[in-house]
Amino acid sequence: MPRTAAPLLTSPIPRVADSDRRRTSASVVLRSVLEHGPVARSTIARLTGLSPASVTDYCARFAELGLIRESAVLRRPKGVGRPHLPVDLDDSRFVVGGVHVAVPYTTVALLDLRGRVVARREVKHGGTEPGRVLARAADGLAELLAGLPGSTVLGAGFAAGGWVDRDSGTVVEHPLLGWREVPVREVLGARTGLPVHVDGHARALVNAERLFGRARGSRSVLHLFAGNVVDAAFATHDEVHHGPRSQAGAIAHLPVPGGTETCDCGRVGCLQAELSERTLCRRARAAGVADGVNPMHVVDAAAAGDPAAVRLLRERSRRVGRAVGLLIDVLNPERVVVTEIGAMHRADCLAALREEAGADRAATVSPISFPDSVLAVAGGSVALDVLYRDPLAASPEAI
C-alpha cells in the first residue's frame, strides 16, 4: 500500500452503530418493564422483538444497577411450561431531582423511577436574579434529599418556560423572568454536584406523558401549556421535536383574531397575552372574584358557585380550545394533551375546550395526566427521560 493511501475505516463506525443499538435495546427493555411489570423476560422478548438471551442479559445488568428486581411471586404460564419469575422496576432506591422555575416561584421535587412525586416544595422568588434563584433551588433539593436518607439521587432535571436550549443547558430567553443566556446546567450542577439535564417545560411534560401518562404508546402527541407562559411541544415516534437550538414550540406571539390584550412586545392580541394566567387573574380581580395572582383562587371561587368565576374559566378554556384547533390543523397529532387550569379541574371547562378544538377531534384531547403535580413532574421528567433513553448510563458511580 502506498504511504499516502488512507487507512481503511474498520472498527469506529461499527462501534458507534453497536453502541446506538445497545442503547436503544436497553431503553425498550426498561420501558417494557415500566409499562408491563411485573413481567416475564419471555414476554419482554415478545413485546420488543429482541432475543430471549438479549433480554436476559439486559435484565441482569439492570438488576446489578439496582433499576429492576425480581418479583417475589411466581407467575404461571397459561399453557404448558415452567413458572416464570417476573421482573419489575425497583422504585425503592433511586430518585431524581426536579426543578421547575415559574414566574412567581420555583418548584423543587424528588421523583421515583415511575415518575411519582415523593417529596416537593415551593420556593418563592426573593427576586428573579438567576444565580439567586438557582442557589435557592439547589438548597431546596438538598433539604428534600436530607429527608430521604435511604435514597440515592441519579441526577436532576430543570424545566422552565420560554426559550430553553437542551443541548447547551441554557435558558436562552425568558422575558417574564428577565433571563437571557443563563447557563443553568453549569450553575445548578456546580451547586448540587449532580448531573443536570435541562429542557423546556412543554417538552418535558410530553416526555412525562409518553412515559407515565395517558399518552403512552401514542405515535404523535401535541402538548399545549397555558400558564403564565404559553408554549407548545410536538412529539412523533417517541421523539420530541426541538428544532435548531431548541426553539421549536415558541407560540407566545401567534396573533389571535379579535384579541384585545396588549402584549409585552407592544402588539395587541398575542396568544400568550390573551391566554396567560396573569390575564385570567387580572380579569378576576376586575370582576371582584378573587384578589392576588393565584389562578387556583379563581378555580376555588368557581367551585364555591361564583358565576363570574365560572364564566371566566369557561371563556379562557374556549380560547385555549381555539388555539388547540389551529395547532391540530397544522400538525394533525394522534393525541393532544393540554395543561390548562380550567380543563384540569372542571369538566365543563374541558368540554368547552374540546368543543372549540372541534367536535370530530374532541376524543383525542385530554388534560395533563398530573393535574396536582404538573410543575414537579415537569422538572423531574427531564432527568427521567434521559434515564429511560440510556439506562445503562444510570449507575450512581457515574455521578
Structural notes for this entry:
There is one protein chain. Strands 5-4-3-6-10 form a 5-stranded mixed sheet. Strands 13-12-11-14-15 form a 5-stranded mixed sheet, with helices on both faces. A 3-stranded antiparallel sheet has the order 7-8-9, with no helix packed on it. Residues 1-14 have low confidence and may be disordered. The protein is an alpha/beta fold. It has 13 helices and 15 strands. Helices cover 42% and strands 20% of the residues. Helix 4 packs parallel to helix 5.
Tell me the fraction of residues in β-strands, as a range. 15-25%
Low-confidence stretches: 1-14
Overall geometry: globular
Helix percent reads 40-55%
Q: What is the string of SSEs from the N terminus onward?
A: HHHEEEEEHEEEEHEHEEEHHHHEHHEH
- On the 0 to 100 scale, the average pLDDT is 91
Number of helices: 13
First CA to last CA: what distance? 46 Å
Largest sheet at a glance?
Answer: 5 strands, mixed
